Amino acid sequence: MKYLRSAVFCCLAVVLVLLLQVWFRQPSFSRCPGWFASCRERSYLFGYKIFEKGSRTEQAKLVFPQHPLDPLTFSEIARVHALVLNSSISLAEGKHAKLIRKVGGSKPNIFLHGVSLEEPDKEDVLTWKTGDPMLPRKASVILRIDVAIYRFVVDITHHIVESVEPHHGSGTPTLNFDDMNTASALPLQHTEFLEALKSRELDKEEVSCIPLSSGWYNVKEEEGKRLIKVQCYYAGGTSNYYMRPIEGITMVVDMNMKKIVKFIEHDHVPLPKAEGTDFSLSAQRGPMLKPLNTISLEQPDGPSFSVDGHYVKWANWEFHVKPDYRAGVIISQASIRDPETDVLRSVLYKGFASELFVPYMDPTEGWFFKTYMDAGEYGFGLQCMSLEPLNDCPRNAYYMDGIFVDADGKPYVRPNMLCIYESYAGDVAWRHTESPISDREIRESRPKTTLVVRVIASVANYDYILDWEFQTDGLIRVKVGMSGILMVKGTSHDSIREAAEANEELYGTMLAEKTIGVIHDHFITFYLDLDVDGTDNSFVQNKMIRKKTLDGTSLRKSYWGVQQLVAKSEDDGKVKLSLFKPADYVVINPKKRTKVGNPVSYKIVPGKTAGSLLALDDPPQIRGAFINNQVMWVTPYNRSEEYAGGLYVYGSHGEETVSRWTRRDRPIEDRDIVLWYTVGFHHIPCQEDFPVMPTVTESFELKPTNFFESNPIVKTYPTYEKDLPQCSFSI
Ligand SMILES: *[C@@H]1O[C@H](CO)[C@@H](O)[C@H](O)[C@H]1NC(C)=O
Ligand SMILES: *[C@@H]1O[C@H](CO)[C@@H](O)[C@H](O)[C@H]1NC(C)=O
Ligand SMILES: [Cu+2]
């Protein structure tokens, strides 16, 4: 007890000192005159934003774009909306009028499905410098006028609608919250469903329904419609309603008509019990796991990074970061300072999670369609909820808000949707200590601190923790962590023995009585526009191949060496991983070499991943063809090709995927190229995934390879005890 009290006291004192230090010493966060009460700008204190008054929305209105890649601001969105409305009306009266009137009558119903910055051309962004006049601000707007779908490009600066592209192919836009809310509310007004609840003796107050994208299965009567399936769950004694599926009822909603068009009761399965499903703190009974002593990262001198608008500077890195309704987060213009020349060198022009594909492996009535594409269907960014300080991100985190647009054009703020923090996990950046056999004293070790950009998307039941982690040695690690709640299926059986006796295929693992965790995959395909020291790059496979020694030249029979394959065209850029055919996958700048002559490059280092086991002609896999090459595709840069599964993914037929684009086999040597890398997980659920899953993480890396002349972090300091906050206590 005594040590606890003194530790608490000591830490309080440290906190006070830190408060003052953070307040006065942080050079790059906007400094506020005076004390808290007079602070109008954003300020940060251990990661918490402090506003004197006013809502987030009011604060957000004060922000102006500072960088050509900055996301649209509140007032820009308002202007976009006005322009689009005006132009849609003339559109409705003009050449598309017939199409529009067919359904909507004379007055067009306009719904927005995605408003985001239309980024300026890459060359313009690359030549723009701080202090230059802002490049014209443009917005890309995906909207629906009744059933007709358009993409508008609006020039906000010049106050004109620059272009209107009607969408003709398959697929419809990302759902908006209007679609999702309408679909999940409809069942509780639907007679057949209410009757089914009654017959199952369920209380409608305890029912929550979720909208489940319905995929595409080549069913004629579904063509051209915006359909979504809705299934419902029962809380009743738990906050974890996902663990209590009302199995056997599926409703089909026509989102344009806002109506349930089909009610299917395909099974009648008892509800799994509520007991043991609740993971909320307040629901826990009995002894808790003995808590660890509190732990936290202290930064007496404040964080070492700065955020100016959306531009981040940390150690030798600089990059632009922005929330995005579809991708969650976009990293742009990541560049690293060369320690020898002090010059910023480009690495990654743009990187983001381009599409997800999450097929479930149960072909029965209520399940076959579950083959989600969470970015294009639900908006991965729209599903990024506010982060929980201290638990989702550590104490020293900086939080950034997202500004999104609802179906009727109103912008809204998603506070704390993204966090940036320095991470120290006790790892070693580099080291060497010498064994006494050499009789030389060498004891050098440097701690590893990294910078992490994080968003967490809660796509209904699942939570995806998406990190971009930067290291001072030039490495970028992209991590996908998964937690949240399994999508489970109800069964009448209470054990696998019972199910086996009934000869019933479970399509998954029995997690608890009457509860099956259905087998599924997660694939997350990343868009990586690497610009290694300039835009013109080549993709090279450094294949590791066995070499045989010539007879009599060595006692060894074999060794391995490297055979270079420079990719000439897209076919050469298709990579499937194979343990016994290893290679380094490298993006080189063929025009730049190190002093000794190696081409300057970054390599993409695959992590543990997975390939799809579905048949290539299975409809979900036709749409998900962007993961047919595992791990990689390489395409020439084309600003229209950013979404691996297409721009209009919902219900698409798979006509617009990176797999299709690469059929053109375009040249990719010595030009601006884009890599597509997929992180994959096969998931056979297990009992530990119940009632909420411990996080599982996979990653891949972008690693400098002959990019620097030598280890760029030799000239760094070790940590000394005297520099650290002193908190001592006796045990
Ligand atoms: C709306 O469009 C009409 C022509 O199509 C134009 O004359 C008018 O100025 C526009 N209004 C606004 C507010 O942009
Ligand atoms: C750019 O991409 C679009 C969409 O895939 C395609 O129609 C167009 O031909 C591409 N342009 C080039 C130069 O490849
Ligand atoms: Cu999973």
UniProtKB/TrEMBL annotation:
Gene Ontology MF term list: copper ion binding; primary methylamine oxidase activity; quinone binding
Domain annotation Copper amine oxidase N3-terminal: ranges: 173-266
Named cofactor requirement(s): Cu cation
Gene Ontology biological-process entries: amine metabolic process
Cofactor remark: Contains 1 topaquinone per subunit.
Domain (Copper amine oxidase N2-terminal) ranges: 67-163
Superkingdom per UniProt: Eukaryota
Entry annotated with the keyword Metal-binding: yes
Entries under InterPro entries matching the protein: Cu_Am_Ox_Cu-bd (IPR049947), Cu_Am_ox_TPQ-bd (IPR049948), Cu_amine_oxidase (IPR000269), Cu_amine_oxidase_C (IPR015798), Cu_amine_oxidase_C_sf (IPR036460), Cu_amine_oxidase_N-reg (IPR016182), Cu_amine_oxidase_N2 (IPR015800), Cu_amine_oxidase_N3 (IPR015802)
Post-translational changes noted in the entry: Topaquinone (TPQ) is generated by copper-dependent autoxidation of a specific tyrosyl residue.
Keyword field: Copper, Disulfide bond, Metal-binding, Oxidoreductase, Signal, TPQ
Signal peptide: 1-30
Positions bearing 2',4',5'-topaquinone: 462
Positions of the catalytic residues: 374, 462
Domain Copper amine oxidase catalytic: 297-713
Record family assignment: Belongs to the copper/topaquinone oxidase family.
PANTHER family reported for this sequence: AMINE OXIDASE, COPPER AMINE OXIDASE
Protein name: Amine oxidase
